[in-house]
Amino acid sequence: MIKKGLKVIVLTGRDKKKEGEVIEVDRPNNRAKVQGINIVKKNVKTTKEKKGGIISKESFIHISNLKLVDDKVKKTKTEAKK
Questions:
Q1: What number of CA atoms fall less than 13 Å from residue 58's CA on the CB side?
Q2: In the chain, is it the N or the C terminus that has fewer CB atoms within a 10 Å radius of its CB?
Q3: pLDDT at 70 (0 to 100)
Q4: Alpha helix locations (H) across the chain?
Q5: What's residue 1's pLDDT?
């Protein structure tokens, strides 16, 4: 199970084989946001508080495209025998 704070690796897409830490999880849509993965550019309007422009930020990626690589997770019996 993918949770916030765990380390994962991307299995498919343009960021294949990259690793990162899960920032946020969207359970109803089965998506997760990973630090440094699936970076998109977004146009932001200028407001009184913030300056506008083009910013880069992480976007959600489907959980099926992620695999845990964290040592905190217990290994299964088959993985321990290898």
A1: 17
A2: C
A3: 56
A4: 77-81
A5: 85
What local confidence, expressed as pLDDT, does residue 75 receive? 57
CA distances from residue 60 to 11, 26, 36, 48 in whole angstroms, order as listed = 14, 8, 11, 28
CATH number at residue 59: 2.30.30.30
How far from the centroid of its chain's Cα atoms is residue 62's Cα? 9
Please give the model's pTM, rounded to 2 decimal places. 0.74
Q: Is 37 helix (H, G, I), strand (E, B) or coil?
A: coil
Return the structure tokens found at 56.
């880069």
Residue 50's domain comprises 7-72
Cα–Cα distance between 12 and 16 in angstroms, integer?
5
In single-letter form, the type of residue at position 52 comes to G
> How far apart are the C-alpha atoms of 26 and 29, rounded to whole Å?
6
- The answer as to whether 1 is a domain residue is no
Q: Which helix (H) or strand (E) covers residue 19, if one does?
A: strand 19-26
